[in-house]
Model the fold of this input.
Amino acid sequence: MRKKVTLIPGDGIGPEITEATLRLLEAAGAEIEWEERNAAPMVGLRDDDFRPDDIVKSVIQTRVGLKGPLTTPVGVGHRSINVALRKQLDLYSNFRPVRKLPGIRTPFENIDLVVVRESTEDLYAGLEHTVVPGVVESLKIITERASTRIARFSFEYARKAGRKKITAVHKANIMKLSDGLFLDSIRKVAVEYPEIEYAEIIVDNCCMQLVMRPQQFDLLLLENLYGDIISDLCAGLVGGLGLVPGANLGENCAIFEAVHGSAPDIAGKGLANPTAMMLSAVLMLRHLESGPVADRMEEAIHGVYREGRHLTRDVGGSARTEEFTSAVIGALR
Done:
């Protein structure tokens, strides 16, 4: 039975990496009926109060979405559509598995960790206003409900996936009330999972430890803003954002996405690396209980990286998007 999925190609390089991923999904035998929705018009022409209502309605119906990058203007313009989607659909868990791909040279070997980020509140929610000219206030909202929910998600995932340790990342030495509530909520959940080791680390120390001994971490559990920053740092450990998939998960819906930006400087030039989008589609297929197709795709991607002959320039190769995609399709077994 074909499964209906909302497709959001995005902008910048989004349509290119989306097309590459669709080709791979079809070649691998994924049985999906796409319902395409666009966040048009292009960035720079959207209104400041742009709301992705059409996308939200579609995802509510299909329950699953696959999304390319959407540009967010810096300092001006509309609020982040990515944030709006997470809030309107209550996609409270941002889930990023970070694994080193074969053949990629990095300072560290055998990186295999998971970043789980609460994604509906905290400073990243963008609740801010001008108090008086020259004075702006941003609101950091932390609730027991959201903190407990993301903690339970993390421990349940760790139990099912065989993860042995969860480390909560915080700044409770300074933000004693907000980050303190985050930690208190997690501790109450942690006692229900005695087989999983629980630890806590201050966010600045976590950054240092990640670039010194990242193998000490298994699953990192973070608030929204810390999670946004740390997840990018972790991606850098394995070769960059172009290699790391992502998922936004809620009780009723899920959106799988390439976590990198829209790279307008190379849009339309055929240079984009679709790996993150392809691996996000792998996560989506597993969510849809299409494990065999997901395995075929992942093995083909790994095979191309292991061989190293058809890699894009961001990972040291010279292949164009088309060449890389054809190589992955050719590696399907």
